[in-house]
Each structure stands twice: as C-alpha cells, then as structure tokens.
Amino acid sequence: MTSNREIHLASRPQGWPTEDTFRLVETDVPTPGPGQIVVRNQYMSVDPYMRGRMNDVKSYVAPFALDAPLDGAAIGEVVASEAPDVAVGTTVLHGLGWREYALLDAAAARPVDPGIAPVSAYLSVLGMTGLTAYAGLLEVAAMKPGETVFVSAAAGAVGSLVGQIAKLKGAGRVIGSAGSPAKVERLRALGFDAAFDYHDGVRESLREAAPDGVDVYFDNVGGDHLEAAISAMNLHGRAAICGMIAQYNATEPPAAPRNLALVIGKRLTLRGFLVNDHNDVRAAFVRDVSGWLRDGTLSYDETIVDGIENAPSAFLGLLRGDNLGKMLVKV
C-alpha cells in the first residue's frame, strides 16, 4: 500500500462542529527511520475531550493544529519496523489515530495481546476508558460499600462501566441518567438499581430515584446534572468530575450549577481528575476488570462506525449522544 488517508482539522468550530470542520487528506504511507515503526490502524477512538482540543486555548493537553492530522488513541498492527524490539505483525496501542497508517517511535507504542480480548477492547473496557471509570469511582470519589452512587451519561463508555464497577464493589444503590428510553432500559439490564431519561427532568427524577440522597456522584455532564447532584448529595458526599459534555459546544457561560453554596454546609468534595494521574492503580484495574470479564460479571458496549472517512460523523454522533458505550471507528 502506498496511499494513506488522514483526517485533518480544517477550521476551529464556534459552538457545534460540523462536517466542514474536518478534511479528508490523502498522503503517502510513511517510511520508518531508526527506532520507528509504521502501524496500520485497525480501530481508533473518538472521545468528548477532543472537542476542547479543537479550540486554540491553553489546557491540560495541547490543541489540535490546523491543517494537520488530529490524534487520539488507536490500535493496529505493525507493518514496518526499524526498531529491534518491535517485530512486524505486533499489535500495538498508541496515540496517533485519525489516520490509516501511523509513523511513531517504537517507545510510544505499547504491545498488547490480541488473544486475550478483541483488539477494540483495549480502547474501551481494558483501556483508558475502563481505567477512568475505575480510578474515578474508587480513588477520586473513594466509594465505600453500601453507598448510593449517581452516574450521569451512564450509557456512555465511561458511565456504563462506573455503574457496574460500583455494584461489583458493593454500592448499596446505583442510579444512572441517560438520553433515551432505550438507553434507560440498557442501564437496567446492566444492573443499575434505577435509571431515568434526563429529558424528563434531572432534579425531579434524581429525587425520586434517590429518596435517601446520594453519597457519590460521577459527573460526565456538568450543568443541570451537577446542580441536581449537589442538591441530592448527603453530608460529606464526593463528586468525581470526569467531564462536562453539556457545555463543550456552548457559546455562552453555563447557567448551572446555581447552588454551589450547598457545598459548604454539606461539606462536599468536588474533585476534577485526569486519568493519567492514576497509573498507580493500573495493576489493580487490570486484575479486577480482567477477572470480571472472564466470569461474565462485567459487560461493555461498543458503537462501531466503519471507515476512516466517517470518523468526523462518528465524532459528531458522539457529541449528540448517538452511541451506546464506547464510540469507535473501524479504520
């Protein structure tokens, strides 16, 4: 193969991105230099945090460059290698998605065993997504057995795992919000004790689902969900702030939460986190999640869009909530 297709950032969106935000570009398949490998990507991840990287603002990760390929987690097979420790045919996890062929230093790729699980799982339940759920719930929010846990965007990649891990670790009650009746039913099938469609009213639905209050809130949404959670949280409640997708495309400051003063009297802890700060729990995460997958007590969903040319549509669908579980592109 000599042709390589990439998705470039064509413009910086104001508000919601569109298909015109992206450009499909054809280039040559790269040739590796000393210590480098070329990977034929098989799957790539699209994630909510990527929306923030489309803005030219200082953040915890550098913005995407205009007229250059986007990047993100991907997995694929090494097709050319000038690195003595990485053989052609090795399956590797790396950070140069949004393209069919990736050129990178061998040290930036992590070999994985495709015989243990489907390779796509390394981008979802066995990857950053799973570790985010595990570390956020157990380390950041420090959930204790018997507590009531509320998860927003609970049918998404992270949220669906948070709810299940909470039950497996002894939560007394787990509640999830989602964006459609079908997603609500899926949460119940995954073992959530209660679930509701946020279009029916977050504060009222949460009050009904958690009459004795909430001890732990795992936040993927922000806005009205965070406001409702603050109102519902018990004394010394903890919130792990993973994402705030409700405002990623907003052009005006969010109206909520308007009840932050409750944090004082309730002695609440609201703590933001990044998954890369919690690599110290990776071994425990792999041990627990691998065991749960083997015995069938943990399930995961993937929504797979076919073709690199459809990666922009997959990303836009993710922002709209079209996905169930992890949104992936089969390159």
Query: Quick one: overall form?
Result: globular
Estimated radius of gyration = 20 Å
Q: How much strand content do the residues show?
A: 25-35%
Taking the alpha carbons of the first and last residues, their distance comes to: 15 Å
Which structural class matches the secondary elements?
Answer: alpha/beta
**Main sheet properties:** 7 strands, mixed
Average pLDDT taken over every residue: 96
Helix content: 25-40%
| Total beta-strand segments | 15
Q: Summarize the helix and strand pattern as letters.
A: EEEHEEEEHEHEHEHEHEHEHEHE
Low-confidence stretches: none
What is the number of helices? 9
Key phrases:
7-stranded mixed sheet, alpha/beta, 331 residues, 15 strands, globular
Describe the protein's architecture and organization:
The mean pLDDT is about 95. The longest helix is centred in the C-terminal third of the chain and has 14 residues, at about 280-295. Helix 3 links the parallel strand 8 and strand 9. The chain has helices at about 50-55, 130-140, 155-170, 180-190, 200-210, 225-230, 260-265, 280-295, 310-320, and strands at about 5-10, 20-30, 35-45, 75-80, 90-95, 100-105, 110, 150, 175-180, 195, 215-220, 235-240, 270, 300-305, 325-330. The protein contains nine helices and 15 strands. The protein has about 325 residues and is an alpha/beta fold. Strands 3, 4, 5, 6, 7, 14 and 15 form a seven-stranded mixed beta sheet that branches. A six-stranded parallel beta sheet has the order 10-9-8-11-12-13, with helices on both faces. Strands 1-2 form a two-stranded antiparallel ribbon. Helix 2 packs across helix 3 (about 155-170) and helix 2 crosses helix 8. The chain is about 25% helix and about 25% strand.
